[in-house]
Write a structure and sequence with these properties.
The chain is α/β, with parallel strands linked by helices. Helix content is 22%, strand content 27%. Helix 1 packs parallel to helix 2, helix 1 packs parallel to helix 6 and helix 4 runs parallel beside helix 5. NADP nicotinamide-adenine-dinucleotide phosphate (NAP) binds next to helix 4.
């Protein structure tokens, strides 16, 4: 028999955990499905588990480590009685109320949970280049997480691909280990914020390979370089690096909700009027519905909004 809930939260980044704090304090007895450690880019705690110093989360004047921030948020949600379950949502049926949610075997005859309200906070994960060699050498020199893997590249020459804040953050972090970091960017101008650009430009261990697109990751068993194509001339070159950190943006974790709730053309959950989706009783918060801000603090804020929206929605229907 499925457990019957008032509110189920899928996802355990700042959005999901904040929603859990609020719904637990509102005595709604939330269950939060936190995900499972399956890969470096998709794990409980979300993307902050893969970052180092978070300097722009209010309340921490000296900064805080991403994993430490998430551990604190998790403890806070648990303190108010949120039931945090280490599992993945594998299937949902949202056509009728209560909503059916499966964890584990998606073909099981009955769902694991039935819930009146659902808060989707499953976040986003790293985009990959999709070039030859990348998949084959993932974990053998190709990484999406400097915090996880930077240590393995002591005194080596590493490439970071991308021109946004993530790329520069990875590059700056990697200079702790690497002898040299080359940021390979497809344009001649960075997308990253001014402060990150200034830091990267001031770091003598970071150099830039402008207007170059990585077209192949080279290596047999481990990375020995990347093949790049110069945008202006179309000429090819090789960069002899032993590590490639891909930091080119993210895709939303919405596969399990496809066909059940409206997504935008990029696959993000479409929200309106705060955290509402096209399905009455289903709310979304954090990076899974936000292509614009994508900050820990905005995710946490939208988690709060989703919790309040869900609470009011439940109250209005007399639950
Ligand atoms: P982003 O801002 O979308 O930047 C992605 C970068 O990758 C862009 O420079 C883009 O090039 C490049 N790119 C995309 N697809 C590519 C491809 N197929 N081949 C080569 N290059 C490709 O993503 P992000 O850096 O992950 O940042 C996402 C959000 O999180 C941003 O809002 C950012 O401010 C925020 N963030 C903040 C911090 C911080 O404040 N410390 C840290 C990390 C992230 P183009 O520029 O040519 O499009």
């Amino acid at each position: 028999m499925p457990s019957h809930l008032k509110v189920l939260i899928a996802g355990s980044g700042p959005a999901g955990l904040t929603a859990a704090v609020y719904t637990a304090r509102a005595q709604l007895g939330p269950v939060l499905i936190e995900g499972e450690p399956s890969s470096t880019s998709d794990q409980p705690g979300g993307q902050l588990m893969l970052t180092t110093e978070v300097e722009n989360y209010p309340g921490f004047p000296d900064g805080i480590l991403g994993p430490e921030l998430m551990t604190s948020m998790r403890a806070q949600a648990a303190r108010f009685g949120a039931d945090i379950v280490t599992a993945k949502v594998t299937r949902v049926e949202l056509e009728k109320s209560p909503f059916a949610v499966w964890t584990g075997d998606p073909d099981a005859p009955s769902p694991t949970y039935e819930t009146e309200a659902l808060i989707i906070a499953t976040g986003a994960q790293a985009l990959m280049l999709g070039v030859p060699g990348e998949d084959r050498l993932l974990g053998y020199g190709v990484s999406t997480c400097a915090t996880c893997d930077g240590f393995f590249f002591r005194d080596q020459h590493i490439a970071v691909v991308g021109g946004g804040d993530s790329a520069l953050e990875e590059a700056l972090f990697l200079t702790r280990f690497a002898s040299k970091v080359t940021v390979v960017h497809r344009r001649d101008r960075l997308r990253a914020s001014r402060i990150m650009q200034e830091r990267a430009f001031a770091n003598p261990d970071i150099e830039f390979a402008w207007t170059q697109q990585v077209v192949e990751v080279l290596g047999d068993g481990k990375v020995t370089g990347v093949r790049v194509r110069h945008a202006a001339t179309g000429a090819y070159d090789e960069l002899p690096v032993t590590g490639v950190f891909v930091a080119i943006g993210h895709v939303p974790n919405t596969a399990v909700f496809r066909g059940q709730v409206a997504l935008d053309d990029q696959g993000y959950v479409a929200t309106h009027d705060g955290s509402r989706t096209n399905v009455d009783g289903v709310f979304a918060c954090g990076d899974v519905q936000d292509q614009t801000y994508r900050q820990a603090v905005t995710a946490a804020g939208s988690g709060c909004m989703a919790a309040i929206d869900a609470e009011r929605w439940l109250e209005a229907r007399g639950s």
